[in-house]
Design a protein that fits this description.
- The chain is α+β, with helices and mostly antiparallel strands and 650 residues long.
- Helix content is 43%, strand content 17%.
- The chain is built from 21 helices and 27 strands.
- The protein has a five-stranded antiparallel beta sheet. A three-stranded antiparallel beta sheet has the order 9-4-15, covered by helices on one side. A three-stranded antiparallel beta sheet has the order 26-25-27, with no helix packed on it.
- Helix 4 packs across helix 6.
- The longest helix has 25 residues.
Length: 650
């Protein structure tokens, strides 16, 4: 009975039926998008952003009423500025380990370096940034984080195809190419429609080469609907569709499912090997109670249409009346060309010129009004657009006004950070699961000085997930960072000019915290050894007071106090810190604490045996050959000094 029920669910269909079920579900999704107007809304926003007409053209056109239509795209400028406000700062990845031991912390540090490497060198950051822009324009985007067996290092060839180590891939798909359940806010399944080169796919799947090479793609929908006019002309016979279906682990599908299909041929069907479906959605907002995405850019569309109409009307008036017109009451007025661009006008009275190019002042007031309302609705103020008011002169004022613009898009910013965290977590999880061979990355950052780092999946096993911190809005502008640096300098938090320049440029404090991170890891490792009864070595350059304070936490456990071996190791180690700190040379202590070095001691002022002193100051000896009378007078002066002020060194 259970198997019978399970077979009724389309996603649980047997392999010989699943291809047809997937394509049917995708067609149902397309019909839903058209019937609800969701796709039409997206196409309107896309065309407005790129200034396209309904036929895909981009030019000044004349319609049947001889109106010159022109697009002055403030909409695109504002959407771009929103995108920059959200994504201009570098992502700060924060891996979270399962445990707090030093090994887990070192693995977390490695995971951070790997995430930054993939963000900068493997296109992850660009993919996430493009996804934000796509979400603003097309209401939602999906980032696909699959492990691609066709990437990575070449391992061997089996005679038919090259075997590679595999690597992480990042792709973006718009709403036209990701089908999902539309009756609920959250879907347990997704179907991706992906354009692929059929010859590459045939090489990867030689057993299905005939079916793949016979597959096709509808040119009218090659890019999902928003680009139909351009796609139909540029159809590529080498391109076909691949359908990728993911089903999450649910009571109906306890193991999940992953299926890939080309031309009705199932390439494979297996349980879901990923920790979760590797497809992550981002929107600027949601229409409550539905699966629709929303965007503040949608509210700008009517205003942009009004601007286009006003600019078109003003331009038409100037174009149609660009030539000088004259008027005369004389019905017998005649004109004759004289050459050199001159015209003879004959009339009973001088004609007068007509100026028909002047547009109504209301047109220009309305244009300004629409532009201002676009800025109000988008939250992008003059400072964010790079055109601050003359009344804003101080860096603090500019930073605060810009921070207000950033706060307006805080919801999208949070979604961006969440998306980056999900993608980063998926990256680490995929490496843990699928990286069977050693991998290489260029690691930089806190405690990870620039180096080529080789790592394996086992080097990341204690990393659970990654979160992303975008920081305070003030750190996302140069003016805001400058204000923060000024305040920190007043309190002595930042002193090194290199650290200041780095923070002003990037908004990150990795260089400032690099040594602190290394010290913290060292102390944690020492604590772990002390708990085992081992005695770590103590160096002259250690921060002894910090070590002693942190080692004190070990003795907060009664179990440690009752263990003679741990107690003895702790006492020896702490006493070693105290002894070395007591005997530390003043010069070295000054360097480590950041204090100025003590002034050098004049050797001539150092006491020598037999040399008299007054108040601790050495008195010069009487040179040989001094006349007896002079020596007697000198001795008489010394005898006149009270005894408590003199001392004889022996």
């Amino acid at each position: 009975m259970q198997d019978s029920k399970k077979s009724d669910y389309w996603a649980a269909a047997p392999i010989e039926e699943i291809a047809a079920a997937i394509e049917e579900k995708f067609e149902d999704y397309k019909e839903w998008g058209r019937s609800t107007g969701y796709f039409n809304r997206i196409e309107s926003a896309y065309n407005a952003f790129y200034g396209l007409d309904s036929d895909g053209t981009l030019r000044i056109t004349r319609n049947g009423d001889d109106v010159a239509e022109i697009k002055v795209n403030h909409y695109k400028s504002l959407v771009r500025r929103l995108h920059i406000l959200v994504t201009e700062n570098k992502l700060a990845f924060q891996p979270r380990a399962r445990n707090s031991d030093s090994k887990s912390q070192i693995e977390s540090d490695l995971a951070k370096g790997i995430a930054e490497y993939y963000a900068d060198e493997k296109g992850m950051h660009g993919t996430l940034s493009d996804a934000v822009l796509g979400a603003l324009i097309m209401l939602e985007q999906h980032v696909h984080c699959s492990w691609d067996i066709a990437e990575g290092y070449e391992l061997t060839a089996d005679g038919q195809r090259v075997i590679k180590s595999g690597d992480q891939m990042f792709e973006i798909f718009n709403p036209f190419n990701v089908a999902k359940a539309t009756a609920t806010e959250k879907s347990s399944w997704h179907i991706i429609r992906k354009k692929v080169n059929k010859h590459d796919e045939a090489a990867l799947w030689p057993e299905f080469a005939d079916e793949i090479l016979g597959a096709d793609a509808d040119p009218a929908e090659l890019d999902g609907g928003a680009f139909q006019s351009m796609s139909a002309e540029g159809q590529d016979d080498d391109v076909c569709y691949k359908f990728i279906m993911y089903h999450a682990r649910t009571p109906a599908m306890p193991e999940g499912r992953h299926v890939e299909v080309i031309g009705g041929q199932v390439l494979f069907s297996r349980k879901l090997k990923y920790d979760k479906v590797p497809l992550f959605r981002i929107t600027a907002g949601d229409v409550l109670g539905t699966c629709f995405g929303d965007s503040p850019a949608i509210d700008l569309l009517p205003l942009q249409q009004g601007l286009d109409a006003l600019f078109s009307g003003t331009l038409t008036n100037n174009l149609n009346n660009a030539k000088q017109l004259i008027y005369s009451a004389d019905p017998n007025l005649t004109t004759r060309k004289l050459g050199d661009g001159q015209t003879l006008v004959t009339a009973s009275s001088p004609p007068s010129g007509l100026n028909l190019t002047g547009s109504s002042a209301e047109n220009f007031r309305m244009i300004d009004l629409l532009v201002n309302h676009q800025q109000l609705l988008s939250g992008v103020n003059d400072v964010a657009r790079g055109n601050p008011s003359a009344s804003l002169k101080s860096g603090t004022s500019l930073a605060v006004i810009l921070a207000q613009a950033i706060q307006y898009v805080s919801n999208l910013q949070k979604n961006y950070a969440y998306l980056a965290g999900e993608v980063g977590s998926c990256l680490i999880s995929n490496i843990q699961k699928f990286a069977s061979e050693e991998m290489t990355a260029y690691i930089t950052g806190a405690s990870r000085r620039g180096q080529i780092k080789k790592f394996k999946a086992s080097d990341l096993m204690n990393v659970e997930r990654i979160t992303v911190d975008l920081g305070n809005p003030l750190t996302q502008s140069f003016a805001g960072r400058n204000e923060m640096v000024t305040a920190w300098q007043q309190y002595g938090i930042l002193k090194d000019p290199k650290q200041i320049v780095s923070f002003l440029r990037t908004g990150e404090l990795d260089q400032t915290t690099e040594n602190q991170f290394s010290d913290a890891i060292l102390i944690r490792e020492e604590n772990e050894r002390l708990r085992k009864g081992e005695v770590p070595a103590v160096l002259l350059t250690d921060n002894h007071s910090e070590h002693i304070v942190d080692h004190k936490g070990i003795m907060s456990s009664q179990e440690a106090r009752d263990n003679p071996q741990v107690l003895a190791a702790w006492r020896v180690h702490v006493q070693a810190h105290i002894d070395i700190m007591r005997d530390m040379p003043p010069d070295l202590a000054a360097v480590l604490t950041g204090q100025p070095l003590p002034p050098p001691v004049d050797p001539s002022q150092m006491p020598v045996p037999g040399q008299p002193e007054i108040n601790g100051a050495a008195m010069p000896n009487v040179p040989e050959g001094t006349p007896p009378q002079v020596a007697a007078n000198y001795q008489q002066a010394l005898d006149a000094v009270p005894e408590e002020q003199t001392a004889e060194g022996f």
